[in-house]
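To: structure desk
From: M.T.
Subject: fold request, one chain
Message: Could you run this one when you get a chance? Sequence is below, nothing fancy, just the single chain.
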Amino acid sequence: MSVVGFTLGLGQILVQGGQREVNLARAEAAVKELARRGSEVVLLPEALNLGWTHPSCGEEAEEIPGGATCGRLGLLAKDLGVFIVAGLVERAGGVTYNAAVLIDDCGEVILRHRKINELEIAHDCYARGLSVHAVDTRLGRLGVMICADGFAENLAISRALALMEVDAILSPCAWAVKPGFDQEKTPYGKVWLDSYGAVCRESKITIAGCSNVGAMEAGPWEGYRCIGNSIVMGPAGRPLLVGPFDETAALTVRVERKVNRARCDV
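Reply: Done. Structure tokens follow.
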């Protein structure tokens, strides 16, 4: 499918473990701000309702599409006339998944992805997803993956989506560094730049990863920091945007993609 392009907004928001209402309020505020600035699609972080691997996932995971967070995001998408991609901790049939949804501008969930390449330390929190999906929209054919799906062995997940002839892959993320990480000595993000760049160059698509920020206060990575650094990689395999690195670097950013043109508005 050929597409002229669309305006993408990234909500690199603070996510606090187990604080669903506070996190959802921040997500809603980011979507409203980005829609006001002309974004047609808004990409939000991974596990934004509860935080990645936070112990609350066992009790507080939500149904998709019936859960409170998904429902409110759906109403917001319909009200603002935007598409929303959001990472949510999902409960289905007694099983917990690290999931993401693509909600269309009518407020309907048109794609759900369950993370496949989950890190080993998260296997006690989430069951593994078993499939990848793409969907046709008025903005083009879109695919969704989640965080470490982007560096699966042989880049298999992003390459599978590329074979489905998507125009863009949108990836909620939770990029974190261990205590004492030295950004000046070893700048963060090489694995994402390399992984995204290879697939974008091969298939001439766009891949965007939006991470949250904030300290991880519980779970297997307690003491780690989520640091933003969100990335949009263009079809030439070069970054259109690399967001700021810091546990306090919350921001909304708008990336306009038209034919042979890209512009960032932070």
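Reply (cont.): Residues 20-36 form the longest helix (17 residues). Let me know if you need anything else for the meeting.
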